[in-house]
Design a protein that fits this description.
Blueprint: E1 4-6, H1 11-16, E2 21-27, H2 32-47, E3 51-57, H3 62-67, E4 75-80, E5 83-89, H4 94-100
Parallel strand pairs: 1-3, 2-3
Antiparallel strand pairs: 2-4, 4-5
Length: 102
């Protein structure tokens, strides 16, 4: 399953109204740790077809970043039934991401 990029306009439909659990990767193009985390998220997305994976560029989707009080990036947020259930801030490894999704 590929990772979908969402923005202020598509976030509600793609994430909050999703029937699947969603892992949201908040990032920015200039962020070094975000660049390191991105291929790990992509790898997990390939393995976990039951989870939806989306990326939100905090520079382009400031409304969403503000709503979720993203102060540091990368931040991963797990959303189920439109509500945040887990959060991780900073660079984490694949096993930590998998733990978040259990």
């Amino acid at each position: 399953m590929s990772v979908l990029k969402v923005n202020n306009q598509t976030f509600e439909e793609e994430v909050l109204k999703s029937e699947k659990t969603v892992l949201v990767d908040f990032y920015a193009d200039w962020c070094g740790p975000c660049k390191m985390l991105s291929p790990i998220v992509d790898e997990v997305a390939e393995e976990k077809g039951d989870i939806k994976f989306v990326k939100v560029n905090v520079d382009e989707a400031q409304d969403v970043a503000f709503k979720y009080q993203i102060m540091s990036i990368p931040t991963l947020v797990v959303i189920q039934d439109g509500k945040e259930v887990k959060r991780s801030v900073g660079l984490i490894d694949k096993s930590e991401i998998l733990k978040m999704l259990k």
